[in-house]
């Protein structure tokens, strides 16, 4: 997401997102290392599998906090519209790919990629939305 780091809300957003991404990297490393070296079983498997997802879910809350904190209505509008375009594109691609998997035997993709696709589509849409207002 492109936000203005020179605003108070932008600086807070960048700090919060950096913290969540540090937790994501740490949890991902812990999960990968544990599965490769400790070979956990039982409940620990589920805990380690979910652990890296928690900071990613928290990053959604960070964006929500940014929207609430940002006083510039234009910047909020750009962000919300880009999120809507990202959501629409992600739902469209996921739906089409689901039908391809079901009927055309397309390769199964991990649902983790839906999160990546959303942020990618959102990021791609931002400059186009911003340009529309110039």
* Distance from first to last alpha carbon: 19 Å
Please identify the structural class as seen in this structure.
Answer: mainly alpha
The string of secondary-structure elements, in order, is HHHHH
Q: Tally the structural domains.
A: 2
Summarize the main sheet: none
Please report which band the strand proportion falls in: under 5%, 5-15%, 15-25%, 25-35%, 35-45% or over 45%: under 5%
Mean pLDDT: 94
Q: Given the structure, what is the number of helices? A: 5
Proportion of residues in helical segments: over 70%
Q: Rg from C-alpha positions?
A: 18 Å
Stretches where pLDDT is under 50 for at least 5 consecutive residues are none
Number of strands: 0
* Rough outline: flat
Q: In terms of topology, how is this protein built?
A:
Elements: H1 8-37, H2 43-50, H3 53-69, H4 73-104, H5 112-132
What does this structure look like?
The structure is a single chain. The chain is an all-alpha fold. It has 2 domains: 1-70; 72-134. 81% of the residues lie in helices and 0% in strands. It contains 5 helices and no strands. The chain has helices at residues 8-37, 43-50, 53-69, 73-104, 112-132. Helix 1 runs antiparallel to helix 3 (53-69). The protein starts with 7 loop residues before the first helix and ends with a helix. The mean pLDDT is 94.
């Amino acid at each position: 997401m492109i936000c203005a780091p020179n605003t108070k809300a932008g600086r807070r957003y960048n700090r919060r997102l950096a913290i969540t991404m540090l937790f994501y990297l740490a949890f991902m490393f812990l999960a990968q290392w544990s599965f490769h070296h400790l070979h956990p079983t039982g409940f620990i498997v589920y805990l380690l599998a979910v652990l890296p997802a928690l900071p990613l879910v928290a990053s959604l809350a960070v964006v929500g906090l940014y929207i609430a904190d940002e006083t510039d209505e234009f910047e909020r509008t750009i962000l919300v519209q880009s999120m809507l375009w990202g959501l629409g594109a992600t739902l469209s691609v996921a739906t089409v790919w689901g039908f391809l998997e079901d009927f055309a035997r397309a390769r199964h993709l991990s649902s983790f990629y839906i999160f990546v696709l959303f942020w990618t589509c959102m990021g791609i849409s931002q400059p186009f939305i911003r340009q529309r207002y110039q």
